[in-house]
Design a protein that fits this description.
about 240 residues; alpha+beta; 2 domains; three-stranded antiparallel beta sheet; about 35% helix
């Protein structure tokens, strides 16, 4: 069960139906799949959903990938200096505004008035999400005309990508390939109200939640695999 056609056939099989074209006037199965996929995008954070994007920092607001759901980590791209690979820290919008208003230290380039030379200060350090844009700070606009020695930074973003199953029978997604049961049970949850089978809703929901839990737990184990266990002691108050 790796494609849309196989998924829709399995849904009909689990519901013991050949089709939904009678007595209703449309095929309801694609609607079950679409609604279930929306729940998957809200609930699942599996490693097969992780994508990577690299962008040049040429503005304080950068467009997010069109399939962006949630950031895993955002860090500076590799550079020939000490700051390459440093992770940017998330700041809520209010705190980000306070940083800008206070002129927080760390602007990666500024003009030394004594020598008119550009000094590198480490690049952006914080990020926030503004709608479908990524806001970074500090940001220093490049001079016009361009000056030699002005640093150009990039960011590497690892993020969870939204799943969108295409309409063709052979279409698939990363989650459908890795966790087909998540799609199946998510669609079956949506079918219960349509079929007025309230008794089945609890069954499908429990199966769906169990599959989501296992997939999320597998991702967490993979993220921390090989980490050294450190014993911690509770300090007396």
């Amino acid at each position: 069960m790796k494609t849309r056609a196989e998924l829709e056939t399995a849904i009909l099989g689990f519901l013991h139906r050949g089709s939904f074209r009678s007595p209703v006037a449309f095929n309801a199965v694609p609607s079950f799949v679409s609604l279930g996929e929306g729940e998957i995008n809200l609930d699942l954070r599996a490693r097969c959903m992780v994508q990577r994007a690299v962008q040049t920092v040429d503005a304080p607001l950068l467009p997010l990938p069109c399939d962006y759901l949630e950031a895993l980590d955002i860090r500076l791209g590799d550079m020939a200096d000490a700051y390459g690979g440093r992770e940017l820290r998330y700041q809520p919008r209010r705190e980000m505004g306070d940083l800008r208003a206070a002129g927080a230290a760390g602007s990666w380039a500024y003009v030394d008035p004594r020598s008119s030379a550009y000094t590198i200060g480490g690049g952006p350090q914080y990020y926030s999400i503004v709608g479908d844009q990524l806001e970074i700070w500090p940001f220093a606009a490049p001079p016009v005309p361009p000056q030699a020695g002005w640093p150009v930074y990039s960011i590497e973003m690892s993020y969870y990508a939204r799943q969108e199953l295409g309409p063709d029978p052979a279409d698939t997604t990363a989650v459908l390939t890795a966790y087909p049961a998540a799609y199946l049970y998510a669609a079956l949850v949506q079918s219960a109200p349509f079929l007025r089978e309230d008794g089945r809703l609890q069954t499908w929901t429990a199966l769906y939640q169990a599959e989501i839990f296992r997939a999320n737990a597998e991702h967490e184990r993979a993220r921390h695999q090989g980490s050294r266990i450190v014993q911690q002691y509770r300090r007396a108050i």
